[in-house]
Design goal:
- The complex is a heterodimer.
- Chain A contains 7 helices and 27 strands.
- By secondary structure, chain A is mainly beta.
- Chain A has 2 domains: 2-170 and 262-324, no CATH class; 181-254, no CATH class.
- Chain B is an alpha+beta fold.
- Chain B has 3 domains: 3-103, no CATH class; 113-172; 183-248, no CATH class.
- Chain B has 9 helices and 9 strands.
- In chain B, strand 6 and strand 7 (77-85) form a beta hairpin.
- In chain B, helix 2 (112-124) crosses helix 4 (139-149).
- Classes of the chains: A mainly beta, B alpha+beta.
- Chains A and B meet through strand 13 of A and helix 2, helix 5, helix 7, helix 8 and helix 9 of B.
């Protein structure tokens, strides 16, 4: 929940394992303790969407965590993040936007060794939109007090054998019935794309069709709707830029518009979401859906420059659940 | 190790519950255990439980009716788990829902562990009355398990090896999962078996495997892909019962 500096400091001093989000100024002044933090001044707080440079969003990780390790990763060793994670537990990952480790993770995480076998969740840290280009996003290791703009802050948490962590998403966007778009190469930007089977300049196609770039491209990953958001369309260079990479070979379609984000959000939250230990949502949902002052169910958290549920996502809420293990009930081992 | 710890270990009671007290009725060959959530403090007879989501100390209400489950046998005694507080509730602070009982399905009279033993016995023994006599369960309880799991008495002879394993062994290893060379893994990867799942990591993994899949690749490469999928199900077998049913029937 959103707390003042003093309230947050008290939570840290209680020895709790925390993940924090706030402005660089307040995070840098916090006492050392068992926390990792990232910079962002936008939140979905207990009273609704809110912008604040003074408050801190505090999420207390489940008490069932037996052991936690906080460390930085750079672009060289981030590929081992899943291998380093405990066999039973979860990993919380905070990456400064536009850093090299951000770009590497976004493009290559699906291929990292052991990826998808251990829950990895997190977010891309950012800055106030008025400070874009003036200050850099940061992450903090609360145990040492160190901040970084070129490394990711990672918390590996180990759980007892009777608990299991899982990562889920809430994405309101679905594939519309527009042309199928695929890309010859993986990347954060594209010049040409295969549109309905025909090679086209994507920027030209967007202009020609009058496409609303607030609606992301959506891919269907075996039933999971995965967004890639438009960042900008450069008409001069005829290049389209994205907030996450488009992947070669994946088929995208532009999303169907969402009429009322808050109303549809309530109906999209799965009924079995429980024991939530962490969640965050996207700054683009905050901006495009004008969420300031509006509440989105009980799933609160920072509004971020990108979300991580194993791989980098856009315009998606991600959450972590830690639940008791359901013992096997069947006679053949699985039913 | 004191008596309570010994009983917890023998009866596979998890770390999140403590034995408050127990009673043996030798005449009835029965052991009753009264359980309380671990760490819940008593305040003038009440108990509190810390919400795992927000840390709020929730006051546990006394149950309107004591809940009891038939659990495993220990020696000649039939054990029963008793709980005197409401186990399903919402946190008044953050609204998150909790169910403290993980050892039984809603409405079940037997714990999952006991259901497992009854099910194994039904598969091995020719007559369900033998199951009742050997395990000391009622005919209604045995028939409920039989019906619920769709079992046929005494047909275990040619079944998968897993059917002859004990529940504890199944919990500890996943050797009962078919090997990397089982064709069902390839059917999932090449999409000829349309697996329905809402497990996000599995959806991501399948997407990656299908993008990489080459039907003309040598068997070693196909097995390497199957190995990744099998590794997922080895780890998440507890959460993947529906998916495994789709794959292996």
């Amino acid at each position: 929940m959103l707390m003042s500096f003093e309230e947050t400091a008290r939570e840290i001093e209680k020895g709790r394992l925390l993940t924090l989000a706030g402005s660089e100024e307040v995070l840098a002044r916090l006492p050392r303790g068992h926390w990792i933090g990232g910079t962002i001044p936008y939140f979905m707080g207990q009273n609704g969407g809110e912008e604040s440079r003074e408050k801190i969003f505090v999420q207390s990780l489940p008490e069932s965590v037996e052991e936690a390790e906080i460390r930085f990763y750079d672009a060289e060793n981030i590929p081992s993040i899943a291998e380093d994670a405990p066999d039973n537990g979860f990993t919380l990952l905070l990456i400064p936007a536009t850093s090299r480790v951000h770009l590497d993770y976004a493009a290559n995480a699906p291929g990292y060794e052991g990826m998808f076998l251990k829950p990895i969740i997190g977010w891309i840290t950012g800055v106030h939109l008025g400070d874009l280009g003036k200050v850099s996003p940061k992450v903090f290791n609360g145990e040492t007090g160190a901040a970084a703009e070129d490394r990711a802050a990672v918390l590996h948490a180990r759980l007892p054998v009777d608990r299991v962590a899982s990562t889920g998403i809430v994405n309101l966007f679905t594939q519309g019935d527009s042309d199928a778009i695929s890309f010859p190469e993986t990347g954060f930007s594209a010049v040409d794309a295969l549109v309905a089977g025909e090679r086209r300049n994507l920027a030209d196609y967007i202009a020609e069709k009058g496409i609303d770039t607030r609606l992301p491209l959506v891919a269907n990953y075996q039933g999971a709707m995965i967004n890639v958001s438009f960042q900008s369309v450069d008409r001069a260079t005829r290049t389209t830029h994205f907030y996450a990479p488009v992947f070669a070979g994946v088929e995208y379609r532009q999303a169907t518009p969402v009429a009322d984000y808050v109303k549809e959000f309530q109906s999209c939250v799965p009924s079995n979401v429980e024991h939530v230990g962490f969640s965050c949502n996207c700054i683009l949902n905050y901006l495009y859906s004008e969420l300031e002052g509006k509440r989105t169910a009980n799933l609160t958290g920072p509004m971020t420059f990108g979300e991580v549920a194993y791989q980098l996502l856009n315009q998606t809420l991600v959450y972590l659940s830690v639940k008791p293990v359901k013992p096997l009930t069947g006679v053949n081992g699985y039913g | 190790m004191d008596n309570k710890d010994l009983l917890k270990a023998a009866l596979k009671i998890g770390a999140d519950w403590d034995i408050d007290w127990h009673e043996v009725q030798h005449g009835k060959q029965r052991l009753d255990l009264w359980l309380v959530p671990a760490g819940s403090r008593g305040w003038f007879g009440g108990r509190r439980w810390k919400c795992g989501n927000c840390g709020h100390n929730i006051r546990l209400r006394d149950a309107d009716r004591r809940k009891r489950w038939r659990h495993l046998n220990i020696g000649t005694l039939a054990s029963y788990l008793n709980v005197g507080v409401e186990c399903e509730f919402d946190c008044p602070e953050c609204g998150s829902s909790h169910n403290l009982v993980s050892w039984a399905e809603p409405g079940a009279d037997l714990t999952r562990e006991m259901e497992q033993r009854v099910a194994n016995a039904i598969c091995r023994l020719p007559d369900i009355s033998d199951v009742c006599q050997i395990l000391g369960v009622g005919i209604d309880e045995a028939l409920t398990v039989q019906q619920k799991l769709g079992l046929k008495p005494g047909n275990a002879g040619a079944e998968a090896p897993a059917r002859t394993k004990t529940p504890s062994a199944m919990d500890e290893d996943a050797s009962w999962l078919p090997g990397d060379d089982h064709p069902a893994w390839t059917r999932v990867i090449d999409g000829s078996l349309a697996l329905k799942t809402d497990a996000l990591p599995l959806q991501f993994m399948l997407n990656r495997l299908r993008l990489q899949h080459d039907p003309n690749a040598p068997p070693e490469k196909r097995h390497a892909q199957a190995r990744q999928l099998r590794a997922y199900f080895t780890k998440y077998r507890h959460q993947s019962t529906n998916e495994l049913r789709q794959i292996f029937g």
